[in-house]
Amino acid sequence: MEERLARLAESCGVATSYVAASGQRTMVDSAVVTAVLAELGVDPGSDVAVSPGAGTVVGRPGEPSPVGAPGVLITEDGRELSVNDILPPDLPTGYHRFTADDREIAVIVPPSRLPTRPPVWGWMVQLYALHSEQSWGIGDLADLRRFAGWSADELGAGAVLLNPLHAITPTLPVRRSPYSPSSRSFANPLSLSIPDIPEFARVDPATRQQIESLRPPSAPLIDYDAVWMAKRKALELLWPYAQFNLPADPRLREYATFCALAEIHGPDWRRWPSALRDPRGSAVAAAGRQLAERIAFHGWLQGLCDMQMAAARKNGPAMIHDLPVGVTPDGADAWALQDVLAPRIRVGAPPDPFNQQGQDWDLPPWRPDRLAATGYTPWRDMLARAFSSADGLRIDHVAGLWRLWWIPPNEPPDRGTYVSYDADAMLAVLAIEASRAGGWVIGEDLGTVRQAMTEALHDRGTATSAVLWFSGDPRGWPENAMGSISTHDLPTAAGFLAGEQVRVRAELGILDRPVAEEQRQADADRQRLLDRLHAEGLAEPGAGADDLLVALHALLAAAPSRLLLAALTDVLGEIRQPNMPGTLDEYPNWRIPLPLTLEQLMSDERLRRCIAPLQQR
Fold first, then answer.
1. Does residue 532 contact residue 447 with C-beta atoms inside 8 Å?
2. Integer Rg of the chain from CA
3. Residue 34 is inside which H or E element, if any?
4. Burial of 86 by CB count in 10 Å (0-12 exposed, 13-18 middle, 19+ buried)?
5. At what angle do helices 205-212 and 224-238 cross, to 10 degrees?
6. Which element (helix H / strand E) includes 601?
7. Cα distance between residue 559 and residue 485, in whole Å
8. Is 224 helix (H, G, I), strand (E, B) or coil?
9. What percent of the chain has pLDDT over 70?
10. How confident is the model at residue 69 (pLDDT cuts 50, 70, 90)?
11. What is the dihedral of CA 225, 395, 496, 412, to 10 degrees?
12. Are 39 and 68 a contacting pair, CB within 8 Å?
């Protein structure tokens, strides 16, 4: 790569090389760098760069001013403070503005550190899979309320980590992956429990019977389209009984307007009439007046989601939501926030041992320069909304607050590069919103994550992640961590013991190494773990599958980490993992229900045996 292009890329935060999962430094093709610069609006032939953090600085009370000039600091509550070289020692946490001459800069002041949490154990729950005898073909918020109350009252669980419950585009086909939402600021109406809607109690008997007849039957795999069609019809029948006006919240009205327009013009806003692609244009405003009732309808659905989630949180364990890396490029947030996104870029990950061809998540990333220019307002707003319905957040792929793997148009996932963000600012906003909500923060720092990132999270009081598959000795895990046996993207406990991850990936053709070599590695990994269980006296040689599941949870319970989570898939012996990275329809991603109903698992002896060590820690 020519030196001039390398200097330009570096000044824009675009990497020209990176350390791969193997530990080797890998050079990025100059064509990839050039393509990424173009998506940042940078002419590769010029010397004009964009700064990833221009327009916003992070300040701390009593420390040197990061602005570098005297001026007036206008605090979030409207006070005006003169600032020279040192920021005032009593400067409050929050979002402030600094003015000097004709300049205005956003100043973010975070808390020094998030508070330490008491040790608890809890559950990792894929809500769609948690079905009861009353469910409509998918787990819902009533199931969550019952499960959470039972877990707290009878088992002593202190936390529930949920899969993302973010909004879909309410059209067919329904996008199944919870990690590719239409919006990260609003909720998924698929999670609604129809009988728990207040209007259901007020309908006439004939309408109630009609609604009850819509309930889909249970099936071996979840049919998202059938579930949404049934619930949408039921919601339409309940809507005349509701009392709801247009949303007063501008962002909610914008999201509801998107939903109303999508019902007419299709789910992909990029294919709408050109005048409707501008969310703040006159055509959208005119359409909004014509579609007022549908906008009110979609706003009503969000109110119902808030109400049912609040009921699930009441008197139960701490509810921790999972925040995906981004949003689908054709959805509500990509439409509403297109001025701060790089719409043609797809976020993903470079190759690693579990995903040997790299990953393409098809999510448009924030443009770091434009995000900083807004004072991180979209990031702030999204986090505030997330914490409003949760007791904590797990930040998926937390390394994305430092850098994201950008894949240019028409390139495969292994031909991308990292683009940097102002991590100090991103973390400062996260800390402010968590502090204001009194919420947990957990960073998913698995995979190719630099040690400095993990250390920065710990320095701020943010918990990190630890997984048994990556470390056979939980006793060495950090205290401030969320520990688990596996994750939704990795083999379940029963699947790992059976070598299912090799068999399935070989059948799907997503292995880069020969099957025999992959099998040898899997066998060695399994034997290493079994040897530890034997050495710890947790399992005898030749122990059966159920006894090994109990032993694995006993090994997990030995960790000093303050938050330890068991997965329902693990305690019930489910062999299939919820998601197989690198696949779409080739594998039933996000469609596998738990093998037992909620009623059955609440009396399952194997479940109680597995969690007993966690209850005793």
1. no
2. 25
3. helix 30-39
4. exposed
5. 170
6. helix 598-601
7. 11
8. helix
9. 100
10. confident
11. 70
12. no
Task: Identify whether the C-beta of residue 549 lies closer than 8 Å to the C-beta of residue 610.
Answer: yes
Check if the beta carbon of residue 83 is closer than 8 Å to that of residue 70: yes
Q: Is 472 exposed, middle or buried (0-12, 13-18, 19+ CB in 10 A)?
A: middle
pLDDT digits (tens, 9 = 90+) for 468-479: 998 878 999 999
Contact 474, 558 (CB under 8 A): yes
Look at residue 167 and give its three-state secondary structure: strand
DSSP 153: I
Q: How far apart are CA 406 and CA 348, in angstroms?
A: 7
Q: Give the distance from CA 182 to its chain's centroid.
A: 12
Q: Report H helices in 219-331.
A: 224-238, 250-265, 282-290, 292-313
Contact 365, 420 (CB under 8 A): no
Q: Which of 324, 391, 394 is nearest to 178 (CA)?
A: 324
Give a three-class secondary structure readout of 234-264. HHHHHHHHCCCCCCCCHHHHHHHHHHHHHHH
Alpha-carbon distance 437 to 15, whole Å? 35
Closest to 431 measured CA to CA, from 402, 401, 462, 404: 462
Q: What is the pLDDT of residues 112-133, one digit of tens each?
A: 999 998 999 999 999 999 999 9
d(CA 471, CA 446): 11
Q: Cβ contacts of residue 237 below 8 Å, gap of 6+? A: 203, 207, 210, 211
* pTM exceeds 0.90: yes
DSSP letter, residue 85: S
Contacts for 494 with CB less than 8 Å, ≥ 6 apart: 500, 545, 549, 570, 573, 574, 575
Q: Alpha helices, DSSP H only, in 95-223?
A: 141-150, 205-212
Please state the φ and ψ torsions of residue 159, each to the nearest 5 degrees.
-155, 150
Using left for φ > 0, alpha for ψ between -120 and 50, and beta otherwise, residue 189 falls in alpha
Q: Which candidate, 579, 576, 561, places its Cα nearest to that of 120?
A: 561
- Has residue 93 got a pLDDT over 80? yes
What SS3 class is residue 430?
A: helix
Cα–Cα distance between 214 and 65 in angstroms, integer?
A: 62
Q: What is the rounded distance in angstroms from the CA atom of residue 194 to the CA atom of residue 202?
A: 13
